[in-house]
Amino acid sequence: MAEKVGYKTLSVEAHEGRTLADLIIPGIQSALYKLSTIEGAKEYARRGLRVLKSFANGLKLTINDIDYGLSISPEQGAAESGKIEIDLPNLLLAVGEAARSARSPFAILIDELQYLSQSEFSALIMSIHKITQANLPVVLIGAGLPQILGLAGESKSYAERLFRYPRIGELTKNDATTAIVKPVQVEGSDITQDAVDEILRISERYPYFIQQWAHDSWNMCASGVITYNDVVAATEVSISALDDNFFRVRFDRCTPAEKKYMRALAEYGPGSHRSGDIAYTLNVKTQSVGPVRSSLIKKGMIYSPQHGDTAFTVPLFDAYMRRVMPDTA
Which of 93, 143, 239, 291 is least crowded, fewest Cβ atoms below 10 Å from its Cβ? Predict the structure, then answer.
């Protein structure tokens, strides 16, 4: 019996300008090399490497002009079509067989899933479907913006049966309070309840914003206790820091037409709003701004909570748009 060697993981972050294959091949190659050293898994792992070679050849992929360092011959008839929806399932099945023979579960972790193309998303779903049918020890854990739920449904109708879709949004009031209070108390200081409540209110319990306001409130405090007035004084500093970094980075990625659309959306305040209302503010037909809206969704700036609705993906962005573009025209 093969020795149990623990989990193997592949962890990547999708982003614009990189294909899914480009992201996962180095990690899969490394995992298969490690599995090939385990007695009882050698042949399966070596076959996996040959399938990986076919996969790379089929998609004509190289990194830094080096053919992934795979000097072995490709596996004939496996994962070599050049079509990711056909080849990726075959590759991950080979990985799963190697993992099973090594008694080493394999976890694929992908962040920013919304940047995957429709065909890549579909290929992932098909892969997990086949892996589940074969009862192989491979699991996919992904994270991304809310539109990935719609992307999954559009890719394959059976996607809802394969995955769970927990929503990760603002912290609960208790967790957000703990995140503020505990670090202060660890340092031997304290914070008043009304100060905590103000941070919770103005940050909308968004984790990064909690960190920003708590940091600046701590720096504003002249005594051993952070007060409501300290939080109020810190707000200008926090907003300025977010404007210069967090919000600006997102804003600068957008075209003039996209910025104009976001400014029209911001006119309606926080929450989700009808696409027709945004078009009305722009004085155009709803259909004419469809490409701009789609582009903003792909960039992760906005999402559609339900059909015909539009909302910013991060809180407080509407207020930022009104600051950075005061004139709606």
Answer: 291
